[in-house]
C-alpha cells in the first residue's frame, strides 16, 4: 500500500476523547516492549512517527495516527508491565476496556470497523499474559491478526517451532495464522499489509479472523 500521508492526531486518556468518526482503525496491542511502535514506524516507512523507547510501559494512552486520511493506526497501551503499580495496571485495563466498547457502551460495538493486531514476541513466545489477552480479544466482535515480532532474533532452525509453539499456546483456529515479522529487517511487513488490506477491503462485512495464505 502506498503511504501518502501519516499524521499524529491525538492521545486519548478517556472514552470522551476517542475518535468516533466512522473511519476504520487498525489497533496494535501486545505486552510492553513487544515492539508496537517500531513495527508501526516500519509499516509506514517513518522513523519517528510512533515514539519508541527501551523502557517498557512507555505507551500509557490510546494514540491515533491518520493514514492517507482514510484510516487510523492506533497504538494501545502495553499490557503486563511488571514494574507498574497495581493502580496503573488497573487504569490501563480500564482504558482498553473503554476503547473496545462501542460509543453506546456495548462491548465490540465498532468491531466491523476495527482490525486488532496482537503482537507476540517471537523470541519469547506467547506468555500467560498473551493468552489471557488473546482470550479477551477473541471474545470481542473484532477482526484479529496475530503477528510474531522480533523474528530476526530467532534462528532459521527455530522459527518453525517458535511459530507452532505460539499457535499451540494461544489455541489458534486453523483460519488464523501467525505472521512472522521484524521491524529491523522488514521481514513479514508485506504480509502484515496484506492482512490490513484484506480487512479494509472487507470492512463492511462481518468481523472475522484475517488469515494469511
What topology emerges from the helices and strands here?
Elements: E1 6-12, E2 25-30, H1 36-44, E3 62-67, E4 71-75, H2 86-100, E5 114-121, H3 128-138, E6 143-149, H4 156-170, E7 178-180, H5 189-201
Parallel strand pairs: 2-4, 2-5, 5-6, 6-7
Antiparallel strand pairs: 1-3, 3-4
Would you kindly provide a written description of the structure presented here, covering whatever features stand out?
It is a single chain. The model is unreliable at 52-58, 103-110 and 205-213 (pLDDT under 50). The protein is built from five helices and seven strands. The protein is α/β, with parallel strands linked by helices and 213 residues long. It has a seven-stranded mixed β-sheet, with helices on both faces. It has one domain (6-201): Rossmann fold (3-Layer(aba) Sandwich), CATH 3.40.50.300. Helix content is 30%, strand content 20%. It is globular.
Which key phrases capture this entry?
213 residues, Rossmann fold, alpha/beta, 5 helices, disordered C terminus
Question: How many discrete structural domains?
Answer: 1
First-residue to last-residue Cα separation: 18 Å
Pick out the low-confidence regions. 52-58, 103-110, 205-213
Q: Please, what is the average pLDDT? A: 82
Structural class: alpha/beta
| Quantity of strands, as a count | 7
CATH class: Alpha Beta
Question: TL;DR of this structure?
Answer:
This protein has 213 residues and is an alpha/beta fold.
Amino acid at each position: 500500500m502506498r503511504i501518502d500521508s501519516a499524521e499524529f492526531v491525538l492521545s486519548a486518556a478517556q472514552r470522551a476523547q476517542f475518535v468516533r468518526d466512522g473511519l476504520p482503525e487498525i489497533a496494535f496491542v501486545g505486552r510492553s516492549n513487544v515492539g508496537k511502535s517500531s513495527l508501526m514506524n516500519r509499516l509506514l516507512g517513518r522513523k519517528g512517527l510512533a515514539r519508541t523507547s527501551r523502557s517498557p510501559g512507555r505507551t500509557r494512552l490510546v494514540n491515533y495516527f491518520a493514514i492517507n486520511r482514510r484510516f487510523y493506526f492506533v497504538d494501545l497501551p502495553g499490557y503486563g508491565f511488571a514494574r507498574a503499580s497495581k493502580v496503573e495496571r488497573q487504569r490501563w485495563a480500564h482504558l482498553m476496556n473503554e476503547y473496545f466498547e462501542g460509543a453506546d457502551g456495548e462491548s465490540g460495538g465498532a468491531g466491523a470497523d476495527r482490525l486488532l493486531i496482537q503482537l507476540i514476541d517471537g523470541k519469547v513466545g506467547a506468555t500467560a499474559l498473551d493468552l489471557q489477552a488473546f482470550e479477551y480479544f477473541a471474545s470481542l466482535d473484532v477482526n484479529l491478526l496475530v503477528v510474531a515480532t522480533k523474528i530476526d532474533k530467532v534462528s532459521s532452525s527455530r522459527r518453525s517451532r517458535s511459530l507452532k509453539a505460539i499457535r499451540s499456546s494461544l489455541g489458534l483456529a486453523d483460519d488464523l495464522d501467525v505472521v512472522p515479522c521484524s521491524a529491523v529487517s522488514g521481514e513479514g511487513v508485506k504480509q502484515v499489509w496484506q492482512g490490513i488490506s484484506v480487512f479494509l477491503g472487507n470492512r463492511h462485512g462481518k468481523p472475522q479472523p484475517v488469515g494469511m495464505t
